[in-house]
Design a protein that fits this description.
- By secondary structure, this protein is of the alpha/beta class.
- It folds into two domains: about 190 residues, 3-Layer(aba) Sandwich (Rossmann fold), CATH 3.40.50; about 100 residues, Orthogonal Bundle (Arc Repressor Mutant, subunit A).
- It contains 13 helices and ten strands.
- The strands form three sheets. A six-stranded mixed beta sheet has the order 2-1-5-6-10-9, sandwiched between helices. A two-stranded antiparallel ribbon has the order 3-4. A two-stranded parallel ribbon has the order 7-8.
- Strand 9 and strand 10 form a beta hairpin.
- The chain is elongated and about 75 Å long.
- It starts with about 30 loop residues before the first strand and ends in a 13-residue tail after the last helix.
């Protein structure tokens, strides 16, 4: 009788992380996630999912969820009741601490939580915030003098409340060494994968991304996700000019031409326009063209050259330039992310 031997592939184990040694060489690096009343359940879940992938092998992260009130129910942002077995003492053993976002950024975090985070940081722990979790790090003073980010809708509030922080509203995440921060919610996944990439290398991070069915690295920044309305006005003399310009973005929209349609002198037109919109006419036109290009890329199959022509940029190169400088991505990548399933070419308005 022939002998049958089943040969099974040996699961690959990730290498030990190289950003720092864990506090004990006998255990995997520990990631401690902080929860509290109002914690964002989605951000908590994505951190647990990335760092808790047990199928990555025995050398993967050891995940601990802690709170100020261990074993007591907490209510997340969407009403889910959760509880952590560990208290804040768990931060004393953490190699990396993740702080998910909070429901209400006006609520001042408890002094015990802020002190525990500061002590852990002084000890050498790496701390990362997701979305509005940056407000907790800011309240602890951990972001003072540093570059950081948060959701684009909260970035101005963060910068205003904590002027010592260099807030960058355009990026998906900021890695400032031992302190990291990410933009809105899903950008927390980008940051978690970035941490894995730094700890274990690109190959392992790619495997994690494949497991989660997400891209291992996203191009661009938050600006591509920010709604960019074209400002309108109640000025009776300017309103028709706004409407006409938006319908004729493929034409040469010089200040002289727009002022002529408004029946104003160039100087008066510029002054009235800036009073009404807060923008120079040229900047308004570029914003209107970028917005229209975004709409065409999302809803049609028009070639990039045709989109550039229809929006007045003249060439695909010029369109790419404005997408790169304003949105941090390219028209092709933007379309790949945002294109809808239906492709109906929008009718050109009557001129």
């Amino acid at each position: 009788m022939p002998t049958i031997v089943k040969i099974m592939p040996t699961p690959k184990r990730p290498p030990r992380p190289h950003h720092r040694k864990s506090s004990s060489p006998a255990r995997p690096p520990r990631v401690t996630i902080v929860i509290y009343d109002g914690v964002n359940a989605f951000e908590l879940g994505l951190a647990v999912e990335v760092f808790g992938l047990t199928e990555m092998g025995v050398d993967w992260y050891d995940v601990v969820v802690c709170s100020e009130r261990p074993n007591q129910p907490l209510v997340s942002n969407n009403g889910i009741t959760i509880a952590a077995k560990a208290g804040l003492k768990a931060l004393t053993l953490a190699d990396t601490i993740v702080v998910p976002g909070c429901l209400d950024t006006e609520v001042t975090p408890s002094r015990s939580l802020l002190n525990a985070l500061c002590r852990a940081h002084r000890r050498g722990a790496r701390i990362a915030s997701i979305c509005s979790g940056a407000f907790i790090l800011a309240a602890a003073g951990l972001l003072d003098g540093r570059r950081a980010t948060a959701h684009w809708a909260q970035a101005e509030r963060l910068a205003s409340r904590y002027p010592a922080i260099d807030v960058d509203p355009n990026v998906l995440y900021v890695d400032d060494g031992d302190i990291m921060s990410s933009a809105g919610r899903a950008a927390g996944l980008d940051l978690c994968l970035h941490i894995v990439r730094g700890d274990y290398g690109a190959d392992v991070a790619n495997r994690v991304a494949q497991r989660l069915v997400v891209p291992p690295h996203r191009e661009g920044g938050q600006s591509q996700f920010i709604p960019q309305p074209v400002y309108e006005t109640d000025d009776n003399a300017l309103a028709p000019v706004f409407t006409w310009a938006q319908r004729n973005l493929d034409r040469e929209l010089t200040i002289a031409r727009l002022a002529s349609r408004a029946k104003m002198s160039r100087r008066t037109f510029i002054r009235r326009f800036e009073q009404a919109t807060g923008l120079a006419p040229g900047e308004w036109v570029v914003q209107a063209r970028v917005l229209r290009a975004r709409q065409l890329l999302e809803a049609t199959k028009m070639a990039i050259e045709d989109v550039a022509s229809a929006t007045g940029f003249g060439s695909a190169e010029a369109l790419r330039h404005h997408f790169r400088t304003r949105l941090g991505t390219s028209p092709v990548r933007y379309r790949a992310i945002f294109q809808t399933t239906s492709h109906s070419v929008t009718r050109v308005e009557d001129r």
